[in-house]
Design goal:
Length: 318
């Protein structure tokens, strides 16, 4: 059964409220009420944890539906210091450290954002919507709620995979470029880390289509995008944004390092000579304070134009 993220968020808020009640001195005097609220939390389909960031202090019964190898938190803690040991690194999901901030603190600091976690437990991947609340500042105790959204995320991945891939080359399309670029701009503004854009296209591609035919042109696009893809880091984003025009988004990369990569790709393409010999031109720019999606794209486009105007098969920094 599909449950919307809005419903999951609402249930999460209720659970955090119940945990807050359990943590008050008032309820500590009334064991019957305490047992009542604990039973509600235990019957929740969400994982509910109390943690001091270093250790899990308690967990509800649902936690052990996922971590079936353990009977209690003591058993779990003997082998694992943190559930973040089970996190799978993937773009769009929390890591143990996020821009240098521990994941629990990150959840609390950026509560306005919906955070998702991907975990691998007993060789099976699960997706969770995660939230956290500081419930005891003196003891540094946090309430953590993990709501299983595996079904929703699996469906979303299938749909997203279709919507963000270029049909011919199977790299990213313009939509993926727009999404990733916006995210990189937000991160650069918040944490002041560099990123660069590299715009590139195939020199005289129209001549290939006119002289050899569009079928050969398509094979060239597929062959050389495959070649470039193998050279990139996992964190880099490679997209086709026009017929023979492509763009790279390079996180944590200055324009000087972007230039070095672009030169490496330029030589790689020139020497490959599969299907037919081609060359490519490159324009490299680095994010500048105040840039938006249009301004940084425009600077990269102008740098690429200068590369073509000055003879093609070269790299120009904008």
């Amino acid at each position: 059964m599909y449950i919307s993220l809005e419903v999951i968020t609402g249930v999460t808020l209720v659970l955090i409220f119940l945990i807050l009640l359990l943590s008050t001195n008032f309820l500590k005097k009334f064991s019957r009420q305490q047992a009542y609220y604990k039973s509600i939390i235990d019957t929740s389909t969400n994982i509910v944890l109390l943690s001091d960031q270093k250790n899990i202090l308690s967990a509800n019964k649902t936690f052990f539906n996922y971590f079936e190898a353990f009977n209690n938190i003591d058993d779990f803690s003997k082998k694992h210091a943190c559930i973040c040991e089970f996190f799978e690194e993937e773009d769009g999901y929390l890591s143990p450290l996020n821009d240098g901030v521990a994941w629990v603190e990150y959840l609390v600091t950026f509560q306005m954002i919906k955070h998702k976690i991907k975990m691998k437990i007993d060789e099976e991947s699960y997706y969770f919507l995660a939230s956290a609340s500081l419930i005891d500042e003196k003891k540094n105790i946090y309430a953590l709620i993990l709501s299983d959204i595996t079904e929703q995320e699996t469906t979303r991945h299938e749909l997203v995979s279709l919507s963000i891939k270029d049909e011919l080359t199977h790299i990213g399309n313009r939509k993926l470029y727009d999404d990733v670029l916006l995210k990189q701009i937000i991160l650069a503004q918040r944490y002041v880390h560099p990123f660069s854009l590299v715009m590139l296209d195939i020199d005289f591609f129209k001549k290939i289509n006119d002289s050899l035919g569009h079928d050969i042109g398509d094979k060239v696009l597929k062959e050389y995008t495959r070649l470039i893809s193998y050279t990139l880091r996992e964190v880099d984003t490679f997209c086709r944004i026009g017929g023979e025009e492509f763009i790279l988004i390079l996180p944590h990369t200055t324009k000087d390092k972007g230039y070095i990569l672009a030169q490496k790709l330029r030589k790689l393409v020139e020497e490959h000579k599969e299907i037919t010999s081609i060359t490519m031109s490159f324009g490299v720019v680095e994010y500048l304070k105040g840039d938006d999606e249009e301004s940084i794209f425009s600077r990269a486009d102008k740098a690429l134009y200068r590369a073509k105007e000055s003879g093609r098969n070269r790299v120009v920094i904008g």
